[in-house]
Amino acid sequence: MSSQPGSNEDMSEENLPGERSDAHHGAVQPVGDPFADPGLPPHEPRRQDIDERTARRSERVVAFLFTLSMLATVGFIASYVTLPIHKIVYIFPIGHVSALNFALGLTLGVALFCIGAGAVHWARTLMSDHEVPQERHPIEASPEVRQQVMADFAQGAKESQLGRRKLIRNTMFGALALVPLSGVVLLRDLGPLPETKLRHTAWKKGMLLINQNTNQPLRPEDVAIGSLTFAKPEGLSDDDPEFQDVIAKAALMIVRLKPEDIKDKRELDWGHEGIVAFSKICTHVGCPISLYEQQTHHVLCPCHQSTFDLSDGGRVIFGPAGHALPQLRISVNDKGYLEALGDFAEPVGPSFWERG
């Protein structure tokens, strides 16, 4: 039976492209390597390698970038010190932004960018650009390889011309020395220097207790037994730009207890006919206390459930709060209004290192 053209028998006699048949073993072997290593192209010198004037020009460019970084860092610090926090400016096409935030971001970005750009330009124009191929090897290097690495490092340091290009070296050191000052200055933004601000509030002797809901001075008859009233210092308006800062420390809660239910003698002496005033700020993390249990005389912080006994000096009876609520000493003036007899005897709110 004759074979037809294109049959399987004919195909077995033919070789696939790029292969040859072994006459003795019938094996098919590839001809040549289709992925041969082309090698590295011949090295071409740069203008800076053959022209010292061009090299000097590149040196000045790198030094300019490092100097610009130093100036930007100085601008960052100057912006932080001089620009007011609440100033808003219009920047096209961004729109209205904080002048301080924009200045800080711009100057710090320029400082970091110029250091990076200067280092890249230095490496591309003045450092050695010879490519050195190396075969892959196990992670653990032999002593010969370690020695070669150290020799290559020393050679690279020499070829960087750091000792020769003093202008680059000095400006680079200046930029690297100044840019960390940006971070040091930012540490100032962890918070205002407290000085004695944590120990004092807006309450002063003779200052009236103002009902925070009605904005009217409080009289003893306005405070009923079992009620919880919130008060603020006299002269503090909700429209005042400093209102939140002041009320965050001066917020007051007032309750009226039966004198015989008050367990702490000082608390009784600091009140008026069973009316006592305590700080509204929880001594755990500063949340405003707003839940009052009339039968037990307990107030509860809604954030972490710290519970205070207002009939026993505001002491902590449950929760993570560290100390009792500060009490404000109050009395009644000659016009019949409740007034403060001074500031809190101890700092309000959460503990701090210097509290003592």
UniProtKB/TrEMBL annotation:
Superkingdom field: Bacteria
Residue segments, region Disordered: 1-53
Regions of compositional bias (Basic and acidic residues) in chain numbering: 43-53
Entry GO CC: plasma membrane
Keyword Disulfide bond belongs to the record: yes
Location of the protein in the cell: Cell membrane
Domain Rieske: 244-339
GO MF entries: 2 iron, 2 sulfur cluster binding; metal ion binding; monooxygenase activity; oxidoreductase activity, acting on paired donors, with incorporation or reduction of molecular oxygen
Membrane topology: Multi-pass membrane protein
PROSITE patterns recorded: RIESKE
Entry annotated with the keyword NADP: no
Matching InterPro entries: QcrA_N (IPR045603), Rieske_2Fe-2S (IPR017941), Rieske_2Fe-2S_sf (IPR036922), Rieske_Fe-S_prot (IPR014349), Rieske_Fe-S_prot_C (IPR005805)
Main location per the UniProt record: membrane
Subunit note: The cytochrome bc1 complex is composed of a cytochrome b (QcrB), the Rieske iron-sulfur protein (QcrA) and a diheme cytochrome c (QcrC) subunit.
Role description: Iron-sulfur subunit of the cytochrome bc1 complex, an essential component of the respiratory electron transport chain required for ATP synthesis. The bc1 complex catalyzes the oxidation of menaquinol and the reduction of cytochrome c in the respiratory chain. The bc1 complex operates through a Q-cycle mechanism that couples electron transfer to generation of the proton gradient that drives ATP synthesis.
Protein name: Cytochrome bc1 complex Rieske iron-sulfur subunit
The species this protein was found in: Streptantibioticus cattleyicolor (strain ATCC 35852 / DSM 46488 / JCM 4925 / NBRC 14057 / NRRL 8057)
Organism lineage: Bacteria, Bacillati, Actinomycetota, Actinomycetes, Kitasatosporales
